[in-house]
Amino acid sequence: MAASIESLLEEISNIEEPIEELQCLKTALLSITVNDLRDFVSGHRFEVIFSLLNSNDREQVELCVDILERILMACSPLQVVQNYKAELQAGLTHPNDTVKILTLTQVGRMADHPDAAVQILNSQDIIVTVIRSIAADNMTVAKQAIQSLTKLARTETSTSKIISGDLLNVLTEVMTVSDIIRYRVYELVVTIVSEAQSHEGYFPCARIINKLIEELTGDDILIRAAAIEMITLMVQTERGQKYLMGQLVFNKIAKMMIDANTDPLSSLYLPGFVKFFGTLSFVQGPQRVCEDYPIFRDKVFEMALDADPTMIGVAMDTLGLLGSTVEGKQVLQKTGEKFKSVIVRMSQLASAGATELRVRCLDAISHLLTLQPEQQTDDLLALTESWFLLLSKQPIDMIRDISTQPFPELHCAALRVFTAIAAQPWGQRLMVRTPGFMEFILDRSISKSKEAKDAKFELVGSLLGSSNVAETLGSQNYISLKTYLREGPYYVSAVAAVDTEGAE
Question: Global pTM?
């Protein structure tokens, strides 16, 4: 096969219209494994294929791309950068986007090889062209450029190379192309500095980061909404939090949330601001964030009671995030009647409305009610029980009714609520006292999809995870649940199988 490939390469170099031969070469290359191809490519060069990229014939160019993709995959990244640096530079400026994507993919491969990464970073012309590719009309090209640069900037040394000096000037220049391109650069820089190994990574690109921060307070509401998404990425790391605190960003956002009451367009950016503080509360702790920025908690409650589905959805997600920790549960409980009214609203929304919003409400409820075994103190058990009882006069029946509606997402979300309370003694007592509920759990015919069967199986496992479950549920229920668990989530009884076959 190697001889066949060599022969085809020689033929291709001697004819003017090599489409047929390129197709044969592509077939030959695909017929052998990459491992077998490695020995062959290490002793050959493929300038002839690269040269054929300089054509207006689209079919020829795409065949060459397929061939080169296979050949270069068999080369080590170091071989590629050492042997084909000029070809890489040409590929980055090729008019055909598939050639650009191929080349950018190879740059990304080099980022994973320490020696190859050093060589490509020292090739400033190539890095400049990769940076300019961020402004490509083709989104796939732009994303591949951002991904390759992000991978190249993994070390402190490489970070300083890409976002300082002349290359920083190129980035700044690219930002002026359009609003869309500016945000691509923000995405790149925020990702790089967020993954930087030291706080120093922020200083070379402070000019760009500070411009992003300025976008928050600008007059363009849509740009403000986009800016908060980028800044939320930064707050997920300790280094990002320190930098943003140094720029007083937290206080600025809190003030804009307060001022939002008089801004008729605030609905466009408020969800992003709430997500920002929600993320901050997850990494710094709900109590600290809610105490330092009480407007955040107030806005979440206000949005939960809003009529706008977008506002409600973000509020439900945020409440679920806050309530997923013991500290968050305690913070919410301290608000007293305010939070009780929110729980009642959750119940109303979970029972009626658009399916997606109902699922988000149910998921928030399940997070609020979940307590790990080691967290089950008398106070916390009393707290989760009181919240559950606020949902309805008969909350078990309410959630069960939701689960029997013909929407798989609702069924699974309702089962997750039951799973949350199933490991808690009060939840088990309510379940066993509710007529027909144990039969509902053991009825496999109700949960039809794989996701539903898995959710039901998790519910059974949660019920059986408690130390005193046999006493609470009774011996017969306990034995039936143990059998269910032993049989697994996808068990089908022989009787049910026969009945199904007869029906057919």
Answer: 0.81
